[in-house]
Structure formats: C-alpha cells, structure tokens
Amino acid sequence: MHVECSSARQRFGGRRGGWKIARARPGLDGRGPRSRRKSRARHGRKTRSRDRTEAMTKMFNDTAAATAVSATTTTLAQKSPVILLFAFGVAGNLFALFVLARSRRAAGNERCAFLLRCLATNDGIGLAGMLAIIVANVFWPYIRNELWTCRVLALWRFFGLGSGCVAVAMAIERWLALTRPSFYRTNITCILLKRIVFKLWLGIFCLVCMPFFGFGIYYVEGAEKCSRVRDAKEPLDVVYAYLHFGIGMIFCTVIVYMTLDITRVLCSKNSTFNNLNKFNSVKRIGNGEVATLTRREEKKFTWISLSLCIIFVLCWIPQMVSIPLTNFVQNQDSRQLKLFNKIADFLLALHLTVDPYVFVVQLLWKRTKRMTDEETNNSERTSCNASLLPSI
C-alpha cells in the first residue's frame, strides 16, 4: 500500500502538484470547468450591462432628437408669420422687376424706372437675406448668436438705409421735375441719378461697416449674443447709434418736405406743372404720327413716388424713435418698450414688403386706364371721321 501511494505521488509529481496537474488537464487554456463558468457569467454580465447602456443611450438620443424636432416645430410655428411676410415681399419685388423690365422705356420715365428698379432690387435682396437667416436660425438654433451670424446681420442693416437712399433720390427727382422744370430738363439725367444713388449707397455701406472697426456695436462678447444699434451702452456705441438716428431722421425730414411741396404743386391750379407740356418727349409711330408723353405720364410717376415716400416715413420714424427711447428708458425689460420695439421692427419689414406692390399696382392700373382711354379716343375719332364722309 505504501508502495502504491508513493508511486502515485511520483507519477503526479507529489500530492499538491498532482492535484494541480489533474485540475489543469481538463482544459487546454489552463482553467477548470468552474473557472470557465465564472468567466462566462462575468462575460454575460458585461454584455448585459453594455446592452443596457446602449439601450439607454439610444433612448436618450431619441428623446433628445424628439425634443429638438418639437422645439424646431414650435419655433417654426412662431416664426411662420414673419417667414410668410418676407416670402411675400421677395415674390413681390421679383414681380416688380419683371413688370419694370417689360414696361415701355420712354424718354420721359427712364429716370423714374431706374429708381424703381433700384428700390425693388434693394428691398428684394434685403428680404431674401433676412428670410434665409430666419430659416437657418429655426433649423440650426446654435448658429443664432455665432459671431459670423452677427456680422451678417450687421451688414444687412445696409438694405434698410439703402431703401431710404432711393426714397430720398426719388423725392428730390420728382420735386425738381415739378418745381424746377428747366433745371431738371437740362441737368438731371439718368447717368447723374445713377451716380447719386451709388454714392449714397457707398456712404451707407461705410456706415454699417464701422462696427467692425470698433465704432458701433453688433456683438456682445461677454454675453456672446448679437446686439442691435439701439442696445448700445458704451460711449462710442451710443455715438454711433445717434449717428444712425441722425441719418435716418435727415432722410425722413427731406422726404416730408419734398412730399409736402410736391403735393402743393399738384393741387395748385396755377403751378409750374403746366409747363411740362412744353418739353414732353416724343416717340415716332410706324405711320409717322407723333405721340407725346403728356402731363398724365408725369403725374403717374409723381403719385407713385409720393406713395413710396409716405410709406417710408410712416414705417421708419418708429424705428428711429426706438433708438433714443431705448437709451432713455431705465427699465430695459419694460413690457411697453419691448412692444414698441417689436412694432417698429414689424413696420420696417412691412415697408420692404409693401413697396413693390404699391408701385406695381399703380403702374398696371394706370396703364390699363391709359389703354382704355386710347381705345375710347380711337373709337370716337373713327366715328367722327365716318360722319364727315360724304354719303353716296
């Protein structure tokens, strides 16, 4: 018995070693069945834990996506009136440019047609840019207060004041045509009007670029948000805001004075407007007749200019008044102040939207009326000639 045990210990390398070898033999990786079961259990727990983590992450992502979609839908519903207004304005300005391109280019209305094209182009680009910015802010809210977004918004101030430049040029052009007909005929040409409008636009562009060089405000670095001109707090920013206010009020004052004087001339029976018939431009027709641009043609563009200038003043004065009002009011979070600023912003957008429809409707209506009058005159002339023929 002793010999058998000793031989067994020698075969397995001793008692302890023998047990080790015996436990190591069943598995090729050096682990026994119990160790493998524990390993599989640990692996299963890790797999289940990872699956739960992935499921929770997916659930959180789905919840965040649903929340983002819900927030986008809510914002889109809130902004839909503004988006529709801007889209309506863009379509109107495109239609106005189409009508002006197809209109008859007579010598008497070339200057007015140029100013109307400038106004439609300026308003159309301004509205299209603001529409793109609003839609981008709705679908990508994180870009709302980015630095480059604030810079684009600051540059887009140009189109608001640019519309005022065209309105001023239009008012002065009509005022000279009615009150200084000789000077207007000899000195005011379409080339001169182009130079004046482009120089005014260049000056306004330099004004809106000043905040990029430290004079004026467009971005609050500490709060990391875009800022309006009227929200200025620093001395230089306040000076820039009042410079902006002063230029806008000069535009409004000039337009009001010219509009009142033009209205006085149009309503006066003995005005110099009657002298326009002396220098009406002519246009040859195929049969050799000479057709003149009568006083009615000049009055048509005069009333269009008056309508546009009046709309500009009514929509721009609240925007200008909001600048000193915001600086003087101590409580910036006042409900009345916020309501007034929203009304001022809405009127400015309404001005850019309504302009094309005002002069396009007037152009089409007056053109239709003129064609009807011409047909009536032709029929009367034909009947008169027929009555003068001798009867056979």
UniProtKB/TrEMBL annotation:
The chain crosses the membrane at residues 82-103, 124-143, 155-176, 196-219, 239-260, 301-323, 343-365. It comes from the Eukaryota. Keywords: Cell membrane, G-protein coupled receptor, Glycoprotein, Membrane, Receptor, Transducer, Transmembrane, Transmembrane helix. Its main location: membrane. The keyword Transmembrane helix applies. GO terms for molecular function: G protein-coupled receptor activity. GO terms for biological process: adenylate cyclase-activating G protein-coupled receptor signaling pathway; positive regulation of cytosolic calcium ion concentration. The keyword Cell membrane applies. One of its GO terms (cellular component) is plasma membrane. Residues 92-359 form the G-protein coupled receptors family 1 profile domain. It is found in: Cell membrane. Residues 33-49 have a biased composition (Basic residues). Residues 21-53 are annotated as: Disordered. It is a multi-pass membrane protein. Belongs to the G-protein coupled receptor 1 family. PANTHER family: G-PROTEIN COUPLED RECEPTOR FAMILY 1 MEMBER, PROSTAGLANDIN E2 RECEPTOR EP4 SUBTYPE-LIKE PROTEIN. This is Prostacyclin receptor. The lineage of its organism: Eukaryota, Metazoa, Ecdysozoa, Arthropoda, Hexapoda.
